[in-house]
Amino acid sequence: MDPVRNPFAPGAGSKPPELAGREAIIEDARIAIERALLCKPSRSQMFLGLRGVGKTVLLNAVEALAENRGHVTSMIEAPENKSLGEQLLPRLHQALRKLSATANAKAKAYDALRALRSFASTFKLEYGDIAIAVDAEEGVADSGDLENDLPELFVRVGEAATAAGKAWTLLIDEVQYLSEKDLAALIVALHKINQRGLPVLFFGAGLPQVAALSGEAKSYAERLFHFPEIGALPEEDAKAAIRQPVTDEGAFVDEAALIEIFAKTRGYPYFLQEWGHQCWNLAAGDTITVADAQLAETTTLKRLDEGFFKVRFDRLTPKEREYVIAMAKLGNGPYRSADVADALGETLQSLGPRRAQIISKGMIYSPSHGDVAFTVPMFNDYLIRNFIQQP
Q1: Could you tell me if 187 and 304 lie in one domain?
Q2: Which residues of the chain have pLDDT under 50?
């Protein structure tokens, strides 16, 4: 088939041609977005799941939905080396400038900008190219205590949104990289917003451990957030994610090919996109056959090994690589930390810091006490293919 017309475009956060199996989540988000415009509170949502399941795609879809409904939105990808305040500063400045364009909101937006100036000065945040052309407001968002100042700042933004007849939606990807202090302050700020009934919404995305991290940061987080689990697609949804884009291009895919693709991808959205992309390019006529799906395996695994998997493995030190390879040798996870220690001939205590570091890099997580598992689907298969000698 013509590669120019290939509907599949696997990439980090790239929107798939068919967002199959996520309709309920999108509908819940739509309701929350509509309620915010009426100043009716909704629980914040935190999309949790492994790598490659489409969390970022969902965040992008929610952002577009919010913008279409008249929300001012701010999207952040939490980095490993920057504070939440540094990330928020330019986004809040931009959001307040948009809100100030509404005549009724000019005064409230001005007050919020003064609070933002106070916040930035207190926490010594770099402005970069940003110029906040207002004087700081003394006594607002300037105590130096993030759990006190961030809520005050959010309230001012919420009041400006109310005056503008709009809502503000904050979206944060990779929430697991927020420090405990930043996560706690964010939770307190969202709690304050809910108490005030202000039109502010939050949507986050992160690895499975975020639910536990939120609970550790603030005990009431489980009542503040809804934690939809974003996982592999059920078989029929996975097939639709391949079939519909192909059909939309006037081509066809055999049922046997769909069964083969689902078996090889296990329904993980990123892998479905990779397999679909390769199958399309391999198909000789206007139909993707089971032979095309089988032939696609070699090329697809090579692409995954050299990209999706490798970039994550390369972040690990030699000792950390030794740890994850020992996990893979044990078979399919989750894995008992004690079993990994036995395989390496070391004690649980001596491996504790190494395990913690791999968790901090987002490569593994603890699904239950004493267990570890990969955050990347089928990562153990990658390690076996490339680093474990086959008998």
Answers
A1: no
A2: none
